[in-house]
Amino acid sequence: MKNKVVEVKNLVKNYGAKDVQTKALKGIDLVIYQNDFIAVMGPSGSGKTTLLNILSTIDKPSLGAVILDERDITRISNKELSKLRRDKIGFIFQDYNLLDTMTLEDNIALPLSLNGVSAKECMERTKELGSLFGLTDHLKKYPYQLSGGQKQRGAACRALITNPEIIFADEPTGALDSKSGRELLDCLKRINEEGRATILMVTHDSFSASYAKDVYILSDGMIKCRISRGAERKEFYDRIIDVQTSMGGDFLCE
Ligand SMILES: Nc1ncnc2c1ncn2[C@@H]1O[C@H](COP(=O)(O)OP(=O)(O)OP(=O)(O)O)[C@@H](O)[C@H]1O
């Protein structure tokens, strides 16, 4: 039986006061199992960022629950939240968020060293992940000496280094050219297929989404449909495009 990592129950998010309220999420139910690779797509304003912000504990819902490790993480104390963010969740942001004053290897190792793991073990794990992400020759460099693709693959290593329960990625290829985007997605796909990461990624881009195993389409604060990949990524990509077209939406615009 598959292990549940995150369970989202009837998530509702309203912004603003009653007379000028925006209903950004209108009751989202979603279960994320271990080793899932989910892409969330949808038109601008459909609630993707709101959902990701609540799942990743950056924002609180108006109603509903997000269960991780048998706890509703929307209702735990700030102290518990920091620990949860450090130990259980990895983040990949569109703009990398690496620290400029540290080498890539120190950036990658940072979450482990903050957890008191020995320098030797930090370096071993950093080297191993760095090699999986094609960064072996770049670990001693500072972020300004790296390409966008190298920085983002470094950010992915940093997200993975604590073996978190889940990785949340917010438009991880958004700032990358297509080749660098593909390299990052290939690495994420491989590490997911090796059973080493559960990933939820928000993206506007059908090509990026086709690297996931399942795509959820949000529309107007609700999950409209789920598309699951068969064997072939190319065929999955075509199906994602077909669903976009049939919904009359062009997710790539705006
Ligand atoms: N802080 C806020 N205050 C008020 N309304 C907000 C706020 N943040 C988002 N909204 C509204 O909630 C709805 C969902 O926004 P959200 O940013 O989650 O959509 P999105 O799918 O991520 O859009 P995009 O693809 O353009 O980033 C939109 O109507 C937006 O205007």
Automatic annotation (TrEMBL):
Keyword ATP-binding in annotation: yes
Species per Swiss-Prot/TrEMBL record: Parablautia intestinalis
Family to which the UniProt record says this protein belongs: Belongs to the ABC transporter superfamily.
Source organism superkingdom: Bacteria
Keywords: ATP-binding, Nucleotide-binding, Transport
One Gene Ontology term, aspect cellular component: membrane protein complex
Descriptive protein name: ABC transporter ATP-binding protein
Species classification: Bacteria, Bacillati, Bacillota, Clostridia, Lachnospirales
Entry-linked Gene3D superfamilies: P-loop containing nucleotide triphosphate hydrolases
UniProt GO MF annotations: ATP binding; ATP hydrolysis activity; transmembrane transporter activity
Pfam family, one: ABC_tran
ABC transporter domain location: 6-245
Signal peptide residue numbers: none
